[in-house]
Amino acid sequence: MPRPEDVVFPRRRERTEDRTKETAQRKLLDEFFDHATLLAVSRLVNQGLFESIDFPVSTGKEGGVFRATRGAEFRAVKVYRIGNTTFRHLPAHALEQLRQQTSVRNYGGLVIAWTRREHTILGRLTEAGVRVPRPYGHLRNVLVMEYIDDAGAAAPRLRDALVADPRALYDDLVEQIGRMVRRARLVHGDLSPYNTLYSDGHAVLIDVAQAIPTDHPQAPALLARDLENFAKFFRRRGVEVAPSEFLRAVGGDTLGAPTEA
Ligand SMILES: Nc1ncnc2c1ncn2[C@@H]1O[C@H](COP(=O)(O)OP(=O)(O)O)[C@@H](O)[C@H]1O
Ligand SMILES: [Mg+2]
Q: What's the farthest any 2 CA atoms get from each other in the chain?
């Protein structure tokens, strides 16, 4: 059986000629892939979810997202850091949701429950027809999902994207958020041009773990904030978006009503 670190970075050993890369990769490896995480990754490889991890797409305080390969396909692997600094920024409403669902005794358990939660919510959104990365599996603090690209390269965040037709994008977002609210009965709660990818002219919503049910007391306020983040973005691009119209268009006036069949 190969060593877990060789599974995670299969090309690492060939790169001895490139000391800089080697050092950078080792640093990443130490930061994200502690022994237990490496074991989780190699189990996911054994389950056939992907074959190797290629490179980091994004590294942040709470975790990193890596591109992985499976046959001719790419996948995204999100690794949450296990450590007590990880979840300092979690919104209270999300933590409270998690506590209702799982008995979490320590930070490690919290991170694992959070990873599972993101997987579950991605599944629910996929079923509701919302454009999000399709979830493929999870283990411990590692989540495997569809890799969102834009003309072959990693999709940019909407924040950084060159949007050809902002009006069409607004309509697209109304449709995606509308399905999320009306069909999945969820409010994202951290939606913004940072947590939206721009893929071949379409919006793809990501980073969904803190989503809450539409009948949650805080849902209306969170939805209003989510929409305002986009309204600002569109205003800067010359599309005037009225908050009340945006809210009505996504079904925000139906929060708490029974699920649409
Ligand atoms: N499925 C995906 N496909 C391609 N890139 C992704 C995917 N998921 C996340 N990313 C990239 O990783 C970044 C961070 O992902 P995100 O889920 O927002 O995590 P966090 O904000 O918690 O670090 C995104 O801005 C995006 O660039
Ligand atoms: Mg994010």
A: 62
Out of 62, 65, 88, 126, mutate this one to test ligand 1's pocket (max ligand atoms within 8 Å of CB): namely 65
The per-residue pLDDT for 84 is 60
Instruction: Measure 195 CA to ligand 1 centroid, in angstroms.
Output: 7
Tokens (6 digits) for 204: 């793809």
* CA distance between the termini of the chain: 48
Question: 119 and 164 share a domain?
Answer: no
Which band of pLDDT confidence, cut at 50, 70 and 90, is reported for residue 30?
A: confident
Residues 96 and 188 both lie in one domain: no
Q: What are phi and psi of 92, to 5 degrees?
A: -55, -40
Helices 92-101 and 107-127: crossing angle in degrees, nearest 10, is 90
Rounded distance between C-alpha atoms, residue 135 and residue 146, angstroms: 6
Tell me the C-alpha to C-alpha distance, in Å, between residue 251 and each of 38, 224, 226, 255: 43, 12, 13, 7
pTM: 0.90
CA distance 118 to 123: 9
| CA 35 from centre of chain | 24
Q: How far apart are CA 157 and CA 110, in angstroms?
A: 27
- Ligand 1 pocket, 195 CB below 6 A? yes
Domain with 132 in it: what CATH number?
3.30.200.20
